Amino acid sequence: MGRNNYFQFKQFTIVQEHSAMKVGVDSVLLGAWAEIGNASTILDVGCGTGLLSLMMAQRSSATITGIDIDEDACREAKMNSGLSPWPERINIQHIPFQQFVKQNNTAFDLVISNPPYFENSSKPGDLKRKSARHNDELPFHEFLEGCAQILHPQGRIAVILPAGKAHEFASLAANYGYSRNRMLMVRHFPDKPCRRILMEFSQKKITDIEETLVIEAEGQFTEAYRNLTSEFYLAF
After folding, report:
1. Is 189 a member of any domain?
2. Any idea what the CATH number is for the domain that residue 135 is in?
3. Alpha-carbon distance 49 to 8, whole Å?
4. How far is 233 from 16, CA to CA, in rounded Å?
């Protein structure tokens, strides 16, 4: 493996030689922040290298299904989960979400996703990155329609989105009967605008929590960021 083709976490390694999207802060934040509770079945939509699936396995005793339309990503996700401490609990499938919904017979307690979000914009030249980053293949409304069909009545959706797309997603979620229970606004520096928003939704409103996380201040990672991600990053 070449340099930067793998990322070492405390309890597992992510090989990312061929996947379109590499390990990033967004997925680590979502995987650490998502409320798992007593979930026994978790679906990772757009699993990529399997990072979120592995984070869910580390944090729970649930059975996790990861799906992606990128065959190379699924191959690496299978390898990463197979080399992890939890191979028997992670099932990776190369399948579009819409097709998965039609074939699925499992009620999921949690659907987690770092979804594609660029729309009507200049697209990356690499076709894999195009599919991974743009929502042509999985528009928000199709994602929410699918979730409505496969989620347990008490199930939850957890996503991370750019601040400019979060309101659109929340409005659509409300149209499908979902209430937002938790929201985390992420700023990289205290004096910079919010760049990402993490949100949790359920059919029945449970809580109404709005928080802000700053990643770095005064040249150091903040205590809040360290505490949130300390189960995963080697540096913390």
Report:
1. no
2. 3.40.50.150
3. 13
4. 17
Q: Could you tell me the pTM of the whole model?
A: 0.90
**Mean pLDDT within 191-204:** 96
Evaluate whether residue 91 is within a structural domain. yes
Average pLDDT score, the chain: 90
In a domain, 16, yes or no: no
Q: How far apart are the first and last CA of the chain?
A: 25
Number of domains in the chain: 1
DSSP string for the chain: --TTSEEEBSS-EEE-SS-SS---HHHHHHHHHS--TT-SEEEEET-TTTHHHHHHHHH-S-EEEEEES-HHHHHHHHHHHHTSS-GGGEEEEE--HHHHHHH----EEEEEE----B-SS---SSHHHHHHHBTTSS-HHHHHHHHHHHEEEEEEEEEEEEHHHHHHHHHHHHHTT-EEEEEEEEESSTTSPP-EEEEEEESS----EEEEEE-EETTEE-HHHHHHHTTTBTT-
The range of the structural domain enclosing residue 154 comes to 37-117+125-180
**CB neighbours of 224 closer than 8 A, spacing ≥ 6?**
213, 214
Instruction: Give the residue among 40, 69, 195 at the shortest CA–CA distance from 131.
Output: 69
- 128-150: per-residue pLDDT in tens? 444 444 345 789 999 999 999 99
What is the C-alpha radius of gyration for the chain, rounded to an integer number of angstroms? 17
Q: What is the pLDDT of residues 79-129, one digit of tens each?
A: 999 999 999 999 999 999 999 999 999 999 999 999 875 344 444 445 444
Q: Which helix (H) or strand (E) holds 225?
A: helix 223-229
